[in-house]
Known about the structure:
Layout: H1 3-17, E1 23-25, H2 28-38, E2 45-47, H3 61-71, E3 76-81, H4 90-100, E4 108-113, H5 119-122, E5 134-138, H6 142-150, E6 154-157, H7 166-173, E7 178-181, H8 186-190, E8 195-197, H9 202-214, H10 216-230, H11 235-254
Parallel strand pairs: 1-2, 3-4, 3-6, 4-5, 6-7, 7-8
Helix pairs in contact: 3-6, 4-9, 7-10
Amino acid sequence: FAPSFVRLYQALVPRLAHRVARVVTVSEFSRRQIADRTGLAPDRIDVIYNGVAAEFRPYAAEFINATRAALKLPERYLLVQATADRRKNLARTLDAWRMIAAEVPEDVHLVVAGNLARAHVFGTSDLNLVAPRLHVTGYVADEHMGPLMAGADALVFASLYEGFGLPVIEAMAAGTPVITGNNSALPEVAGGAALLVDAGSTEAIAGAMRDVLLAPGLAQSLAGRGLERARRFTWESAAQQYIQLFQTVSSNTSGR
Length: 256
């Protein structure tokens, strides 16, 4: 992150954490991190998982084809969601693609979706965006995100650190196999339904890409397990947990 962004958060977050009635976060991993970094007692921190928006679901071919046409994309692709945030590990993911591009079917491309220009938050980047069969879409409108995800051969989300990792369950809900890191909150969210890799290893990321593309049985298994896993994450459930928490906080406050 940019130094000014770091200083702001380092000053602000610990002070806020000790002033509020409860802290809510999105994973058990994040609960432990918050407790470790702020000194806040873990029993003052609640975990309420994120949900999956309705637009992330399996789509009929006509909708996927319309999105491909709008974004000028090929029929087959691996999808990478990334920003200029270096923890998203885009540079290493691109290196992994360069490593295997000649080994996988020629009709498979790599699509990178996301805003890569937020230097005011993440600092400047010297990212090399030259690779075989690479397409960089930039920002993708909401209307296209679901079909873009559903149309991918797999999502490659080899992030180095996530407090949750929303794209993991979004891809699963769309019926898309997921490759993700074995670090931070990602295994907790994936729940055994993704292909986990060492995100610090270019070779491991490359190997996972190769395996998913060259082993149809593996891809089908991941897609099926992912659909089942994603059903556990709903915004309705999250909303009900927040309502219950607000009622508890309100009751405790009024009783003082």
